[in-house]
Amino acid sequence: MVRRGTRTAGGRRTARTDVAGSARRLRIGRLLLVVALVLTGTKLIMVQGFDAQDLAAAAAQQRFTNDAIPAERGSFTDRSGNVLAFSSEARQLYATPTRLADEQDKAHAEDPSEPTSDQYKREIARFITKTLGNRVAEQDVLAALFSKSTYTTIGPLIEPALARTITEKYPQIGEEYRATREYPAGENGANVLGGARWSQDARKIEGRLGLESSMDKLLAGTDGKKVSDTAMGSDLVIPGTERELEPAVPGSDVELTLDSDLQYMVQNKLSDYARKAGARSAGAVVLDAHTGEVYALANDKSFDPNSPSWGPDGLGNPAVTNPFEPGSVNKVITAAGAIEDGLLRPETVLQVPGSIKVADRTVRDAWSHGTVPLTFTGVLGKSSNVGTLMTAQRLGEDRFNDLVHKFGLGETTGIGLPGESAGFVPPRKDWSGSTFANLPIGQGLSMTVLQMASMYQAIANDGVRVPPRVIAAETGPDGERVERPRPEGVRVVNPETAHTVKDMLRAVVQEEPQQGTGADAALEGYQISGKTGTAQQIDPTCKCYSNSTYWITFAGIVPADNPRFVVGLMLDAPKSGTPESKSSAPLFHDIADYLTLRYRIPLSPNPAPGQVLQVK
Fold first, then answer.
1. Which residues contact 590 (CB under 8 A, 6 or more apart)?
2. Where exactly are the transmembrane stretches of this chain (predicted)?
3. Could you give the CA distance from residue 426 to residue 422 in angstroms, rounded to a whole number?
């Protein structure tokens, strides 16, 4: 079919369908325009209204960065106020080389009298090198400034005043807060203190070992807040734009019970003695006889917490973490129980054979003998295994077990040092017939050097064991000093029993009329009480007690007539062939001698009376 058209004024035809289509397209266009305007308006409302806060925050985030202001870490001091650990404020210089170059080239283009970026960088490098002296080489500064990186550090950590001198003259150089941890005494007491290091992630000093770790929260304080301008399109802080929003609150200072001079002496004497004895390791503890305060706690191996790298040797604290079988120092438990219960007196004579059978176990003394008449004092003085087991059988297993726990064995002391071991005491229900052949003579159970010293502290302190402590007080950011409460004492035996046992233990160090096993511990002019110990170690090849590898121990009280200090010592697997490998009594003598001089302990009014160990 042929469509008819209309003519225009010029004689051209215009199809009716073109007019209709144009009208329809116009209506569709208007509709689309309305929809677009509605959508745009809606978006505008969302942006200006509902999303305004989020978008503003996002924009601010592009312009600013919030950072923490690390709080000053608290210090450690000894009992006399000598600083053992403290934090110093430092600065790390940094630059944004590419940004610095762009800005300086732009400045030079606008004002040719301004130096080029290369000239400016060399000028900065010369000034930094001159300011820092020989702590940084100019070539190293130039290498940092001419690098193509967006961020680079410059030189070592420096004092804030030096950093300020540089950044005030050249604002294009920034400074970042750092803190360094300083240990003036180096290795002295490091096993107790531990160590702390700057953490780049946390941007503050963090405790890594020892008390630095376990007391980290108290020492760290509370960080403050600051805001800095950030370069657009990056997270780089523009130097000189930092503003403080909230100040930091410093951490607390901690006062320890340690005597740093005594600690130094004990640590060095112990290390030297262990080396001469060929011991695998060694530990020593000095306690106040009445308060349980730790005056020294040492291991033969230590580390320097100031060193850039630690260990692995010497990082731990074996004196509180590594238990051992104590040997004959454990005989004090049986002696205290027998005196307390009225079973024996010091002068009671026991007919002691050369060996004794307990269940399926035969135990002998360290020296060969037939039946000998030993006083009960002589059983301790000559360290007779047989005489001790004869007495333990009178005491009974249940009573012995009760005393073991009253003396603090099988549980931690609560001193607050990381990784403290409770040692091991077999549960009473698990004892076999032969268990009681081992425990009274210090085999089959284990303790730390700290626990061993704590046992003898109870004897020195009229029968009351005061759990040892190493933290004396804390001083908060407000300057108020708060003493740590003294732990509540545990009554182990009555005062009369403690005095009697302490006097009996003087026989161990006597030379006349009959020599005890620890005569080398004697100190001229002072009454000394103590006990030697030798415990067989397990031979891993046969899973039995070795006849060549031992723990050598000693625990003593100075002076015995008016106790001031208790000393515990342990040598782990000393090699035979040297005097030091046979006994730690001489080491006790040296430490006791130092204690009496340092603390001006008066001489004993009377020498210790000679005690009969074996009757004729």
1. 269
2. 31-50
3. 12
In this prediction, residue 8 carries a pLDDT of: 42
Residues 291-321: tens digit of each pLDDT:
999 999 999 999 999 998 887 888 899 999 9
CA distances from 576 to 307, 542, 546, 580, 582 (A): 35, 21, 14, 9, 7
Please count the other Cβ atoms lying within 10 Å of the Cβ belonging to residue 122: 17
Could you check whether the bond before residue 239 is cis, i.e. omega within 30 degrees of 0? no
Q: Please, what CATH class does the domain formed by 260-301+318-470+488-598 belong to?
A: alpha beta
Res 252 pLDDT > 80:
yes
CA dist 10 → 5, 13, 14, 15, 17 (Å): 14, 9, 11, 15, 19
Backbone phi and psi for residue 13, each to the nearest 5 degrees, phi listed first: -85, 145
Structural fold of domain 66-235+245-256 = Penicillin-binding protein 2a (Domain 2) (3.90.1310)
User: Strand, helix or coil at 470?
Assistant: coil
pLDDT in tens, 406-446: 999 999 999 999 999 999 999 999 999 899 999 999 999 99
Domain segments of the chain as ranges: 66-235+245-256, 260-301+318-470+488-598
Q: How many angstroms separate the CA atoms of 419 and 403, rounded?
A: 25
Q: Kindly list the distances between the CA atom of residue 586 and the CA atoms of 405, 553, 563, in Å, as whole numbers in the listed order.
A: 30, 11, 19
Catalytic residue ranges: 328
Res 226: pLDDT:
79
